[in-house]
């Protein structure tokens, strides 16, 4: 989903894209928590606080 987004997304935007109610703050907080866990594991980046993206591929030829 992040690859198709064309850029970084906030937790609320991701929650909407996966079909959760964005008005339910506890659902958005749960998504944010999971995204931060993926950042710690190196699967995502959070260059700007609250904005999540895929890490750079490191392939300079593409």
Describe it for me?
Helix 2 packs across helix 3. The protein has 3 helices and 3 strands, in the order αβααββ. The protein has a 3-stranded antiparallel sheet with strand order 1-3-2. Strand 2 (45-48) and strand 3 (51-53) form a beta hairpin. The mean pLDDT is 90. Helices cover 44% and strands 15% of the residues. The protein is of the alpha+beta class and 62 residues long. It has one domain: Orthogonal Bundle (Arc Repressor Mutant, subunit A), CATH 1.10.10. InterPro entries: WH-like_DNA-bd_sf (IPR036388).
Main attributes?
62 residues, alpha+beta, Arc Repressor Mutant, subunit A, three-stranded antiparallel β-sheet, WH-like_DNA-bd_sf
H/E element sequence:
HEHHEE
Q: Numbering strands along the chain, what is their spatial order in the largest sheet?
A: 1-3-2
How much beta, percentage-wise? Answer: 5-15%
N-end to C-end Cα span: 20 Å
**How much helical structure, as a percent, in the residues?**
40-55%
Please tally the β strands and state the result: 3
Mean pLDDT: 90
